[in-house]
Amino acid sequence: MLRWGHRPSRDARLTTHVALAARALGAKGLILSDIEDRKIKETIDEVTQNWGGTFFFEMGIPWKKAVNNWKTKNGVVVHLTAYGENIETSDVLNRVRALEKNVLVIVGSQKVPREFFSEDVSDFNVAIGNQPHSECASVAVFLDRFFHGKELARSFQNGKMSIIPQRRGKKIHDNEKR
Amino acid sequence: MLRWGHRPSRDARLTTHVALAARALGAKGLILSDIEDRKIKETIDEVTQNWGGTFFFEMGIPWKKAVNNWKTKNGVVVHLTAYGENIETSDVLNRVRALEKNVLVIVGSQKVPREFFSEDVSDFNVAIGNQPHSECASVAVFLDRFFHGKELARSFQNGKMSIIPQRRGKKIHDNEKR
């Protein structure tokens, strides 16, 4: 996942939620491009230490460099935008999957540069519906569909705690106790 | 959708995103319980006027009253929580659907009252995975699955504008022009 356009004062909680959603829904990690925000990195790294898995959080790399690195490694770039091909009514998700490549998902915040829509950057422009939206919601639905929902059944290894699902109430297992 | 625990200073953008996600993904409306926030209502009402559909935004009603009203009208209440039954690994979504009733989805912000987990409030406690999460992402995935993805193919009537999906670039149709 690549998060573009983060403004620390305004977007702190939203970017945190984008990262939490990406982690919970099976992304390998998040690149916060063009800027650093150590508080968010701390929050996310702490969640990963407590609740397991191996989610990476990188920051500060210019978006163009991150995209070019990805392309050099033969990866595919998906730009999430309400203007793109509708994930439900078009075959775009099948076309992404058919490439069988690693996917970098770009998700904006403020108005994104026009370049994001061009072939130099995005291989696909995908819309989670063509209505004004939340980037956090878009990330969630894209990942859930991309992984056919299986990501929610994964177990997160080596966390300090795990939730034991319940019909009622809360149950947390302390993984450090014998 | 019922949004509980909104704190205007801290949650303004997140609650806006929850409402945008709810609208884009097929919810009929959102109740902001226990508090009023006119700025968010204006934002959401403006989105609906511009982009169509009939999403309602109510606010200020105490959560208990909203839940009791819903139950009186024979509706079912789903509480989204990471502690609940996993939507992927359990049959909870089928059990919700089997009732064939109108669903009120409760989504918290801060730590929610214990009562939310009890039979007095929730008929189901549903987890979009049992990892720490974003309420905005949870709402999105719940609605996408609940509606079998069909909500993203709906057209929103009577908006001033519509997006025409494109492989590249942005295309907006001005519905007020002949």
What does this structure look like?
The structure is a homodimer of 178-residue chains. Chain A is an alpha/beta fold. Helices cover 34% and strands 20% of the residues of chain A. Chain A contains five helices and eight strands; from the N terminus they run βαβαβαβαββαββ. In chain A, the strands form two sheets. Chain A has a six-stranded parallel beta sheet with strand order 3-2-1-5-4-6, sandwiched between helices. In chain A, strands 7-8 form a two-stranded antiparallel sheet. The model of chain A has no long low-confidence stretch (mean pLDDT 96).
What class, by secondary structure content of chain A?
alpha/beta
The amount of helix of chain A comes to: 25-40%
Strand order of the largest sheet of chain A: 3-2-1-5-4-6
Name the beta content range of chain A. Answer: 15-25%
Biggest β-sheet description of chain A: 6 strands, parallel
The number of helices of chain A is: 5
The first-to-last residue Cα distance of chain A is 36 Å
Count of distinct strands of chain A? 8
Q: Largest interface: which pair? A: A-B, 60 and 60 residues
Unreliable stretches of chain A (pLDDT < 50, length at least 5) are: none
Question: Would you list the SSEs of chain A in sequence order as H and E?
Answer: EHEHEHEHEEHEE
Gyration radius from CA atoms of chain A, angstroms? 17 Å
3D shape of chain A: globular
Mean pLDDT of chain A: 96
What's the oligomerization state?
homodimer
